[in-house]
Specification:
The protein is α/β, with parallel strands linked by helices and 382 residues long. It folds into two domains: 122 residues, ATPase, nucleotide binding domain (Nucleotidyltransferase, domain 5, 2-Layer Sandwich), CATH 3.30.420; 212 residues, Nucleotidyltransferase, domain 5. The protein is built from 14 helices and 13 strands. The chain has a six-stranded mixed β-sheet with strand order 10-9-8-11-13-12, with helices on both faces. A five-stranded mixed β-sheet has the order 5-4-3-6-7, sandwiched between helices. A two-stranded antiparallel sheet has the order 1-2. Helix 2 runs parallel beside helix 4 and helix 9 packs across helix 12. The longest helix is centred in the middle third of the chain and has 27 residues.
Length: 382
């Protein structure tokens, strides 16, 4: 594979590379001599995540931070049931204690927040009391009555994601889109500062697109009919909303680079270039994603771990690790959801594939830790 725009590719990759490993079980191996370690714990739609972040404020170019460890515990808080409430509370307590005891991070350097996805679902179902109860219960659990469990608004989360994912040198030329399960969000900074942020929103994500196609399939659940109904969903409501959202954002004229994060971005990057398993950012073209979308529908067995591994040349690849990652993709996304996610990606990418000017596309594999890392960095800088 020939990497297009090598300098930019390296640039994106260096931001995300987690070269840090655990030294025994207690100590984190850090990269800087004069740095401080923080932790950010996020209650998300699917579970609770913790990012351990090293921040070096004595760098000549300003504050430098990187994620040295990230952990997630599935708890499904947005089901808003008694069982998922307590599993979320337990997960928060477990991760908080891990940060404090295993990583020796003081309480004032552990930040806790609730994602915009949780807030949005709670608002929709009139369940905001569940968030308040979770905050009160967590404070009692860790015996910190004054602890702040910040609830993040969608625009702020999108802004923080940009700050956490995109390198400073590409801050004002990159349009970021996070494709989630139920919706997608992102945006860019149009005025050369990190305060004014242009929000991009879609009411479509991988799961909601797949569900819409499945609902249209009615009693005919064959793959052929699903593909037909998916095409109708994508060319109808999805296409109209994507065109409107991109045009309204003004992102086409303002952005040279389009970075796409989310589960489907990780999946597509892994299936296209499994040998780049250690590269957290993978450059792709519209045509490559289009071809993969066709293969997901017509040649799905060719995307299995066994088949893809046979296509990787060379002995310097950790094929056990690559095989595990490919299998993980197929565990997270079945064939239909991969079809829906790839189709949604193509609809978004198509709006940036101009006749006279094309944009460069990058798939971000570990964007899920982007906003919380930027949030911690922002809080510690106050």
């Amino acid at each position: 594979m020939i990497i297009k725009n090598t300098s930019l590719f390296i640039f994106f990759s260096l931001l995300f590379l987690s070269t840090v490993t655990l030294q025994a079980q207690n100590d984190l191996k850090l990269n800087f001599k004069n740095s401080t370690v923080y932790a950010g714990i996020e209650v998300g739609s699917k579970g609770v995540k913790m990012s351990v972040i090293e921040i070096n404020r004595k760098n000549k170019k300003g504050s430098v931070y990187q994620i040295v460890k990230d952990t997630a515990i599935n708890s499904d808080f947005i089901s808003f049931s008694s069982s998922t409430f307590f599993s979320t509370l337990d997960a928060m307590g477990t991760l908080f204690n891990k940060a404090a005891k295993q990583y020796d991070i003081s309480s004032d350097r552990i930040f806790t927040a609730v994602s915009s996805g949780v807030k949005g679902q709670a608002d929709k179902e009139n369940k905001t009391a569940w968030i308040n109860n979770l905050a009160d219960s967590f404070k009692a659990r860790i015996a910190e009555p004054s602890r702040n469990l910040t609830v993040i608004e969608i625009a702020e989360e999108a802004r923080l994601s940009h700050l956490g994912i995109i390198p400073d040198e590409r801050r004002y030329s990159t349009f970021l889109i996070d494709v989630g399960s139920g919706n997608s969000k992102g945006g860019y900074f149009p005025f050369g500062n990190t305060t004014d942020f242009k929000l991009f929103q879609l009411n479509w994500g991988t799961k909601s697109t797949s569900n819409a196609a499945d609902k249209r399939s009615e009693d005919d659940k064959t793959l052929f009919n699903y593909q037909k109904q998916l095409g109708r969903v994508l060319s109808g409501a999805v296409d109209k909303e994507v065109i409107y959202a991109v045009n309204e954002s003004g992102a086409y004229n303002m952005s040279d680079y389009v970075a796409i994060s989310g589960g489907i971005a990780w999946s597509v990057a892994t299936l296209l270039y499994p040998e780049l398993i250690d590269n957290p950012v993978v450059p792709v073209t519209y045509e490559e994603v289009e071809k993969l979308g066709e293969d997901i529908y017509t040649k799905y067995p060719s995307l299995s771990a066994d088949v893809l591994l046979k296509k990787i040349d060379g002995k310097n690849f950790n094929k056990i690790k690559i095989s595990k990652e490919i299998k993980n993709v197929h565990q997270v996304f079945d064939q239909k959801s991969l079809m829906a996610g790839a189709g949604l990606l193509l609809k978004i990418m198509r709006q940036f594939k101009g006749v006279h000017e094309g944009k460069e596309f990058y798939l971000v594999k570990n964007g899920q830790v982007g906003w919380i890392s930027a949030y911690v960095n922002q809080q510690t800088g106050k």
